[in-house]
Amino acid sequence: MKDNLIKISHGGGGLIMHRLLNEEIIPVLSDRAQTVLEDAAVLDAPGAKLAFTTDSYVVNPLFFPGGDIGKLAICGTVNDLSMRGAKPLWISVGLIIEEGFSIADLRKILKSAKKAAEEAGVAIVAGDTKVVERGKADGLFINTSGVGVIREEPLISVAKAKPGDALIINGTIGDHGIAIVTYRETFPFKVSVESDCAPLSSLVETMLASGEVHALRDPTRGGLASALNEIADASKCSIEIWEESIPVRDEVRGICEVLGLDPLGVANEGKVLAAVKSEDAEEIVSKMRSQKYGSDSCVIGKVLEGPPGEVRLATSIGSRRILTMPSGEQLPRIC
User: Domain spanning 8-150: which superfamily?
Assistant: First the structure.
């Protein structure tokens, strides 16, 4: 890395974060050959294959339309496990609380986390609590780790998308990032956009039971653009998506235009991007639409044999452009 200091963009889910991971963090911490960054690691245990993941949450504000940091922490971990085709089972919750934080707010957040865990069918089985001095933690940070069991082979992986696959998304993109930024006190006006924060384990189970699923990705930081580039790069294939097929709320599109953002790069917390066998796509989408978090599911593109790692956007005016991974942080502190 050319710079000697960490920037806020190093946490944005785009190219700069990937360079930090691949050049500084993974080579030091991991002895395992790591060529593909997955949402969860797959570990072999006696008599079982487990998925394991961990994440930390620093969202600002702690409460936002559609959720709060507690719900977000549980849903994020559940969804990361689900992206490997695992059934989430157990979660740990670590709290870093700032001196002076409201106990009433803490209760609300914990109850929200518990409710999300119950909906996802996971048990909160371990945890830790630390308190730091006033001004040292911005209220509350949460770390969660999760374990799930993988029941089906072959393994779901971002490296297994195949030419001919259809690409599916389960609803409108960019809702979470725009809900967060427009609810912040510094934003000059409010809009009626709620976060899509939701546990997707049940939806993913339906998808796996409905057809052949090759790759799943949770398009959080870096949005849909990062997720598409990660699949194309890991699978050594090309991807084409169709702008007119990608669902975006008018409110989200409007705020993005005001802020100079691309909805494709804005974070989601209740979306799954899937590469599935094209012959099964219609059946999978149909079954997804019958589920609580899949009513707006649709096919948005296809996997091709073209240049490895290339993602192309077919625009509404008939042109095509290369869709790259966001370079930095569009909206900091959104998860």
Answer: PurM-like, N-terminal domain (3.30.1330.10)
